[in-house]
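Protein modeling request. Please complete all fields; requests missing the sequence field cannot be processed.
Requester role: graduate student
Desired output: 3D structure, token encoding
Chains: 1
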Amino acid sequence: MLFERKITGSTPGQFATRVITRGVAPSLHVGYKSFDLKQYFKEGRGLRTEGTINDPRDFGVGKSLKNLPHLKQILRHINHRLLEVERTSQNCRFSQQSMQRLIEPTVTPDGQKAPGLKFGQPRVMALLLALCLFLRLPVGFRNRQLRQQVAALLGCDLEQYTPGQMTYDLRRLRLKGLICRKPGTSRYELTPYGRSISLFLARLYQRVLRPGLAAAAEPPCHVDVPHPLRDKFKALHQAIDQMLQEAHMLN
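Delivered output (251 residues):
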């Protein structure tokens, strides 16, 4: 992942993780053949990332000085990939804090109150699904275009989903950073943040939560259609009931 090289059984070097937290300054060391990559806090103030190439041939580069710019580029890419891996694994773009800012009421830096977009609420999910229809529309979309799509997804007429409701929804989408108004027009377009959030949440709801909950729930009819997920939940419930029974917690 960091060095763009495949690790096999014949790759020299040790592959292990050691975490030391007491009495030392925290540091990270990653080795690849004779290459060493390390991270540490410089004088306890700033995070420093640096690598040492002891043998350029580890990366298919000769030892001539003319290859120095190419080696510097390799090091720069390695450092960048390490930081990207750390950012994604520890606090990705859609982090817990980002989710909270999205679903809870917030206040923008200029003092405007931004109502929350509650995940799972039918109107909010219809908004996110409708936004996905305009991901690749270069000219953006208008109030009426989005209103038609949201009303259709809600299964109601345009009279039931009023222009005032659409204006309110556009405002909270804009204040939450999902959309922005194109300068000098009445059209809107998705921001990069809005594209990733709407796609992720819409897919999560449509492809994971809805079918998953439907599969896990007991069927309303007397015919119990087999389903792997439902069988797992049944086994879990049975195991919990057995533990409670053994603990004499069930009457």
